[in-house]
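Weekly sync, protein design subgroup
Attendees: M.S., D.O., the rotation student, P.L. (late)

Item 1: inverse folding check
M.S. brought a backbone from last month's batch and wanted to see whether the design step gives back something sensible before we order anything. D.O. pointed out we never logged the input encoding, so this time it goes straight into the notes. Structure tokens as presented (215 positions):
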């Protein structure tokens, strides 16, 4: 069964505690938290204080997705506000290996995200060092976008790479995930499904989460 990680970007920020409570009661195991700096991506979301507030309201895993330049500057800060999994973008790291080690040295799981244009094979030499490979299935920056079909091919390549290198890496799919494509994603090797709009814009979010879980 996949891990389901609802993306708080699509929550109602005026009623954040209520939405967190809803996820607490759901079958979702992780919270997906999108940090955007207006430089790496053309949008600004939220940062440490919001993550800290969510950490105070839940015992679930906090999966923090950094869409920021020079993420190595903030590794300690995200640990301090409760991040359990910290994911940086391949495209934002000049010394990716060092950044991965620094995340693990802080006691967090280390993830690396790939933009839609970045091929999977660039991670060949670090795949055994990372706990999570996040494949972006939309261009990062906004929720509610259309799933890019080429992602299926990348997912197959990622599964193959992990198998070839005998790595212990989870594959996460982020962007445009819905009950309509979840089963195929899981079948091709997705371990973690991020879902923003599919969950929070639904009439019955708990039912959608349960559906994703049983994909
Ligand atoms: C996009 C973010 C996603 C986003 C997903 O830049 O990384 O996590 O919240 O939202 P949906 O599921 O609505 O595409
Ligand atoms: Zn994300």
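Designed sequence read out in the meeting:
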């Amino acid at each position: 069964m996949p891990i389901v990680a609802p993306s708080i970007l699509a929550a109602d920020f005026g009623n954040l505690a209520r939405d967190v409570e809803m996820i607490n009661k759901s079958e979702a195991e992780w919270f997906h938290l999108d940090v955007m700096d207006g430089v790496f991506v053309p949008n600004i979301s939220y940062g440490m204080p919001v993550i800290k507030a969510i950490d105070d309201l839940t015992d679930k895993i906090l999966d923090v997705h950094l869409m920021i330049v020079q993420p190595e500057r903030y590794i300690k800060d995200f640990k301090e506000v409760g991040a359990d999994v910290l994911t940086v973008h391949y495209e934002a790291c000049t010394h990716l290996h060092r950044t991965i080690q620094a995340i693990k040295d802080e006691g967090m799981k280390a993830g690396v995200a790939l933009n839609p244009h970045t091929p999977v094979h660039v991670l060949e030499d670090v795949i055994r060092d990372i706990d999570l490979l996040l494949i972006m299935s939309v261009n990062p920056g906004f929720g509610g976008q259309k799933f890019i079909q080429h992602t299926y091919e990348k997912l197959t390549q990622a599964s193959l790479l992990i198998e070839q290198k005998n790595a212990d890496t989870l594959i996460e799919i982020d962007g445009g995930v819905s009950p309509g494509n979840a089963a195929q994603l899981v079948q091709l090797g997705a371990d973690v499904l991020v879902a923003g709009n599919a969950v929070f814009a639904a009439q019955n979010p708990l039912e959608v989460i349960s559906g994703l879980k049983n994909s």
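Discussion: The mean pLDDT is 98. The radius of gyration is 16 Å.
Action: P.L. to compare against the previous round before Friday.
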